[in-house]
Amino acid sequence: MKFIHDYLKHDDRLYRHILPTPLDNPTLIALNRPLIDRLGLNNLNDNQWCNIISGRLTDLANIMPTDMQPIAMAYAGHQFGQWAGQLGDGRGLLIAQLKDNQGRLTDLHLKGAGRTPYSRHGDGRAMLASTIREYLCGHAMNQLGIDSSDAIGLVISDTTIRRQYPEKAAALLRVSDCHVRLGHFQWVSMYTPDNFGDFVGKIAQSYYPALYHSGTKTVDIPALVCTIANRTALMIANWQLVGFCHGVMNTDNLNITGSTLDFGPFGFMERFNPHWINNQSDHMGRYSYHNQPAIGRWNLAKFLQSFGQFISQDDMEQVLISYDNTLQHSYHDKLCQKLGINNHTQHPAIIQLGNRLLDFMQTHRLDFTNTFRSLIALVDGQNHPYEKQLLHHGLAQLPQHAQAHWQQWATEYLHELRHTSKSDIISTLQQHNPIYVLRNHMADRAIMQAYQGDFAEVQRLFALLSNPYQPNAIATADDTRPARHDEIKAISCMS
Question: What does the pLDDT look like over 281-291, one tens digit per residue?
Answer without folding.
Answer: 999 999 999 99
